[in-house]
Specification:
Length: 135
């Protein structure tokens, strides 16, 4: 196990994927009108891809179309002073292929907000990094 200069455990790419698969809420970091923007999202991991749904005309849908984005998810227990954080960086793309859309529709991606969210975005996790605070 590798430890960084702050004493945090450095997660391997495989551990990062396991942590990402265990959470359901993350944050997408993208560019909106030349400024950094962060939006919380419900997501699901499909292999090494991060899948989310949004409205087709949303800022998130427009900003993530063929763009490099960052994605972050974490889980912390303040009482135990333990937790983890994982960041993925990669290209985001809108999904238009009917067969791929049908497969993504089968994922356990339950939305929490009302309204139509029929636009799927897939983020290819090209770089993964993560840290864990042992409890």
């Amino acid at each position: 196990m590798t430890v960084d200069s702050a004493g945090l455990q450095v997660l391997s790419p495989e551990e990062c994927l396991r942590m990402l698969a265990s959470a359901r809420i993350g944050r997408v970091v993208f560019t909106d009108r030349a400024l950094p923007a962060v939006q919380p999202v419900i997501y699901c991991l499909d292999g090494t891809d991060i899948v989310l749904r949004t409205a087709a005309g949303s800022t998130l849908a427009a900003a993530t179309r063929n763009a490099v984005v960052a994605f972050e998810a974490d889980d912390f227990d303040p009482d135990l002073r333990s937790g983890w954080s994982v960041t993925a960086v990669g290209h985001a793309r809108a999904v238009h292929d009917p067969r791929e859309l049908a497969g993504l529709a089968e994922l356990p991606l339950t939305l929490w907000t009302p309204g139509e969210r029929d636009h799927y975005v897939v983020i290819r996790a090209e770089q993964l990094s993560g840290r864990r605070i042992p409890g």
